Amino acid sequence: MPLANPIPTTVVTGFLGAGKTTLIRHLMETAGGRRIALIINEFGDVGMDRDILSACGVAGCGEDDIVELANGCLCCTVADEFLPTMEALLDRDPPPDHIVIETSGLALPKPLVRAFTWPEVRSRVTVDGVLAVIDAPAVRAGLFADDPEAVRALRAADAALDHDNPLEEVFTDQLLCADLVIVNKTDLLDDAERATVEDQVRAAARPGVAVVGASHGRIDPAIMLGLGMAAESDLESRPSHHDSASDHDHDDFNSIVAAMPPVPASLAGAGPQAVADALAPVLAAHGALRVKGALDVPGKPMRLVVQGVGPRVQAYYDRPWRAAEGRAGRLVVIGLNGFDADAVTAGLAASLRSGGG
Ligand SMILES: Nc1nc2c(ncn2[C@@H]2O[C@H](COP(=O)(O)OP(=O)(O)OP(=O)(O)O)[C@@H](O)[C@H]2O)c(=O)[nH]1
Predict the structure, then answer these.
(1) Mean pLDDT of 233-248
(2) How far is the CA of 328 from the centre of ligand 1 (A)?
């Protein structure tokens, strides 16, 4: 018997680096006194998102309101990780007004939405809406489109091969589960490109789903929260590549944690972007989809955060190192399966040591 007021939950999906954390941070900053609890899940565990979100400094958005699930993608760990976390949040006194779940960039949202039908939580929460954050420049660059030439070449080589593009699969699964699609990073496109991407996304989304453009995830919370979709009762209308698969194990992707040497003074002295520029060619050469982590700059109390999505790599100082972190530089690098972890690590370290030269 459902309760009169199940707690609304918003699921935020979107590919690696599309801007989910940025959007949620903006949401927390503008949510106007609502008690929002966050569940965050990262693929490749260096825990950067928690830092970015807990630094938002909003009253009522404390460390305790952010729960991090680090062991694999939420979509694969619903029973072991997600349900107990959810029950613990619901048992709080007072319970949150709203729950926001940031899924990892490789997670499929549908298994998570399905978990809301499980008896443990069914009567206590509802999926208010699934938001898909889309990286507009990546769509524009064709990252999620099947490359017809590559498909033809594979077919010629081996008729039995699975020809699906894993990026396209994850992207479409996320898009087809969405109740609201946010085409983000529009600041990196001109008006015509933006219109083309929005049309393309609208054509690929489920009919009638709203598509809105955004830069740095700046969307009015009134548009994102309170959609009232009860997505868990509407699973049939959300098609997935994995509906018939019993499990989904992310075998198509590889994530490594690369230990990095201290940044030499000659490079660090040229500024954060020089450090990012030193790393970018190595990441590009290995086809990295996402990089995230922090580097040690000797003599600086702050750690140097590195954030990269596809070809764009940025770096900035964010906070002092904590004693327990031991100033250990580490980068999570995520790519398609098959990239050589040792070669990526060695290449990045060498590029730092040589200042990118
Ligand atoms: N130019 C530009 N950069 C953005 C925008 N939104 C996010 N970014 C940057 O893109 C990078 C990734 O943003 P995140 O918010 O961490 O993306 P995410 O989807 O949470 O990433 P994962 O959790 O790793 O999948 C960061 O360096 C952001 O600063 C945007 O609208 N415009």
Answers:
(1) 76
(2) 24
Q: How far apart are CA 66 and CA 318, in angstroms?
A: 19
Give a yes or no: residue 245 inside a domain. Answer: no
Tokens in use for 162?
Answer: 């699975």
Domain that holds residue 95: 7-237
Query: How many C-beta atoms lie closer than 10 Å to residue 104's C-beta?
Result: 26
Q: Is 23 in the same domain as 143?
A: yes
- Number of the ligand 1 atom closest to the C-alpha atom of 23: 15
User: Residue 57 pLDDT > 70, yes or no?
Assistant: no
| Together in a domain, 222 and 284 | no
Tell me the pTM.
0.89
Q: ipTM of this predicted complex?
A: 0.99
CA atoms of 185 and 138, how far apart (whole Å):
10
Atom of ligand 1 nearest to the CA of 216: 31
| Judgement on whether residues 196 and 296 belong to the same structural domain of the protein | no
Whether residue 218 is found in the same domain as residue 316 = no
Pocket of ligand 1 (CB under 6 A): 14, 16-22, 42, 49, 105, 184-185, 187-188, 215-217, 290, 292, 307, 309, 314
